[in-house]
């Protein structure tokens, strides 16, 4: 697999902070994967995003994006490859209307207007928000605003999309729509997704999960490996996934196969138990 | 004045730059009117424009509300204090005369004309169109290194965040009310004081929104406004030229009626 982001021995300490926010962190992220970075508040996950996009400068260590180590001179090139969807939909909506907001990133690149019109329409189509083109942000729901934010990022054709707790302020419906949309786009557009969250349930679509604690990676593995940690996850300030809790409760009274069971496997086991009764 | 009212009519489709400048121009020529005929002409023009906008007349009356007391005060002042050689009624410092009545009627008309025309502008033009017009009008200042595009972006972002800050204020007020602050009670000083616990959190949250927004803008490649292209463009059409010609015609008739 091809590496798209390669982080080596990264350190960052906020001014006037005693402990480092990122502590000697190394991580490789591969092309077209959906990587979830989970951790409690203050574990360093948002700091990591800002470091990757060069919004803050690392104390030491290196970050390479698409094979190029980022520094002050090429940071704007690196940023073109990365799109970030932030947490609060209202705090990232720059334009007065949906189409204006989608065009913002393109305007920054100095794209000619005729091309912009096509790119904006295309991006809005991808997130299924074309009919809202002329609307102002006040008339949109949180999920719709995040879809516009995704369109704004897609319009500039990045290779990597970072979702920094982008669904934490949405209702369950909005969250589901946004996550499914992102997964669909990942497949279609050959994107790499890095999603940052404190809610382990939001990682179900990812292919790999990294658990961050005190600025260090404590676990790195496939979702089933991470979910299988069960109660150990609470040590890192995370909640045990519902399916894992259910399994351990079931194991107290009935015999289940060893190891982590996916939702479907668990359902099959439940049916089996039900028909044996 | 008023908030933008979505609609569809000739006035809505006029170029905002033209509307913006012509509104100011009209406010200027209102002061040239000096007799019944010239005021009647201007009133006819304003009513015609209101008719063309297809907006319910009630919205224009509403526009008068905030300045109602100012109008009343000015009109009464003119009515009672205009000096005259043949007063109808005289008592102490108060004088009521025919001249006073005419002058106060004119002043009243000026208020109506200016408020109606500027209400027409704000009802039919979105804030963002107004900010685009300002940018376009200020463009010549680029030569003296005035950061026109940056100022225009600042203006449009400020407009974009007004509703958000209003929401924020309501939230803070509710939170303070829940802690027992009463905003409607007490004397003037006490009322002003009770706004301090709103302003401080509002400042704090504005700064945090501004910080988030700056990070989001930078992540989307915003540098310093140089080398940006523009998605929203204003287009000047034939109807805008016709409006200007119409305005020139109005001015000529006005000047004629004035010396008549």
Automatic annotation (TrEMBL), chain A:
Organism: Companilactobacillus nuruki
NCBIfam families reported in the protein's UniProt record: ECF_ATPase_1 (TIGR04520), PRK13635.1 (NF010156), PRK13648.1 (NF010167)
Database matches in InterPro entries: AAA+_ATPase (IPR003593), ABC_transporter-like_ATP-bd (IPR003439), ABC_transporter-like_CS (IPR017871), ABC_transpr_CbiO/EcfA_su (IPR015856), ECF_ABC_transporter_ATP-bd (IPR050095), EcfA_1 (IPR030947), P-loop_NTPase (IPR027417)
Top-level taxon of the source organism: Bacteria
Keyword Nucleotide-binding part of the UniProt annotation: yes
Chief subcellular location: membrane
Chain segments annotated as transmembrane: none
Name listed for the protein in its UniProt record: Energy-coupling factor transporter ATPase
Membrane topology: Peripheral membrane protein
Domain (ABC transporter) ranges: 5-239
Keyword entries, A-Z: ATP-binding, Cell membrane, Membrane, Nucleotide-binding, Translocase, Transport
GO cellular component: ATP-binding cassette (ABC) transporter complex
Family indicated by similarity: Belongs to the ABC transporter superfamily.
CDD domains documented for this protein: ABC_cobalt_CbiO_domain1
Entry-linked SMART domains: AAA
Localization per Swiss-Prot or TrEMBL: Cell membrane
Molecular function, one GO term: ATPase-coupled transmembrane transporter activity
Keyword Transcription regulation applies: no
């Amino acid at each position: 697999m091809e590496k798209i982001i390669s982080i080596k021995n990264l350190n960052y300490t906020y001014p006037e902070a005693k402990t480092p926010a990122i502590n000697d962190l190394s991580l490789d992220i591969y092309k077209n994967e959906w990587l979830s970075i989970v951790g409690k508040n203050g574990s360093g996950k948002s700091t990591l995003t800002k470091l990757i996009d060069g919004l803050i400068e690392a104390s030491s260590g290196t970050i390479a994006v698409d094979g190029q180590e980022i520094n002050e001179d090429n940071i704007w090139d690196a940023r073109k490859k990365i799109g970030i969807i932030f947490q609060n939909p209202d705090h990232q909506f720059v334009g007065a209307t949906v189409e204006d907001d989608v065009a913002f990133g393109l305007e920054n690149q100095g794209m000619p207007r005729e091309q912009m019109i096509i790119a904006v329409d295309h991006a809005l189509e991808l997130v299924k928000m074309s009919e809202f083109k002329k609307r102002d942000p006040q008339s949109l729901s949180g999920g719709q605003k995040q879809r516009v934010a995704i369109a704004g990022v897609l319009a500039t054709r990045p290779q990597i999309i970072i979702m920094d707790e982008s669904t934490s302020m949405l209702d369950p419906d909005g969250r589901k729509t946004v996550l499914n949309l992102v997964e669909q786009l990942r497949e279609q557009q050959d994107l790499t997704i890095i999603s940052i969250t404190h809610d382990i349930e939001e990682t179900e679509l990812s292919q790999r999960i990294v658990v961050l604690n005190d600025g260090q990676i404590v676990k790195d593995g496939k979702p089933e490996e991470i979910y299988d940690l069960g109660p150990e996850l609470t040590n890192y300030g995370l909640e045990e996934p519902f399916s894992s809790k259910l399994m351990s409760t079931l194991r107290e009274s009935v015999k289940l196969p060893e190891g982590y069971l996916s939702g479907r496997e668990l359902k099959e086991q439940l049916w089996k138990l039900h028909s044996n009764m | 004045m008023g908030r933008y009212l979505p609609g569809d009519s000739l006035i809505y489709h006029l170029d905002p730059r033209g509307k913006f400048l012509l509104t100011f121009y009209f406010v200027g020529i209102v002061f040239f009117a000096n007799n019944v005929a010239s005021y009647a002409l201007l009133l006819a023009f304003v009513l015609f424009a209101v008719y063309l906008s297809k907006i319910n007349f009630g919205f224009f009356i509403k526009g008068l509300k905030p300045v109602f007391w100012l109008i009343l005060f000015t009109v009464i002042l003119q009515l009672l204090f205009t000096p005259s050689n043949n007063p109808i009624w005289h008592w102490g410092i108060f004088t009521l005369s025919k001249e006073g009545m005419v002058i106060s009627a004119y002043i009243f008309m000026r208020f109506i004309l200016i408020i109606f025309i500027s209400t027409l502008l704000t009802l039919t033009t979105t804030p963002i169109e107004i900010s685009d017009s300002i940018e376009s009008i200020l463009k010549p200042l680029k030569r003296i290194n005035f950061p026109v595009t940056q100022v225009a972006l600042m203006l449009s972002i400020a407009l974009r965040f007004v509703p958000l800050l209003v929401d924020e204020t309501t939230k803070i007020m509710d939170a303070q009310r829940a802690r027992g602050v009463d905003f409607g009670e007490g004397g003037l000083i006490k009322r002003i004081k009770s706004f301090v616990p709103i302003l401080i959190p509002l400042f704090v949250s504005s700064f945090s929104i501004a910080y988030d927004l700056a990070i989001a803008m930078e992540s989307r490649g915003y540098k310093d406004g140089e080398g940006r292209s523009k998605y929203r463009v204003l287009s000047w059409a034939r109807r805008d030229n016709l409006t200007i010609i119409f305005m020139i015609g109005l001015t000529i008739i006005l000047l004629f009626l004035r010396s008549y």
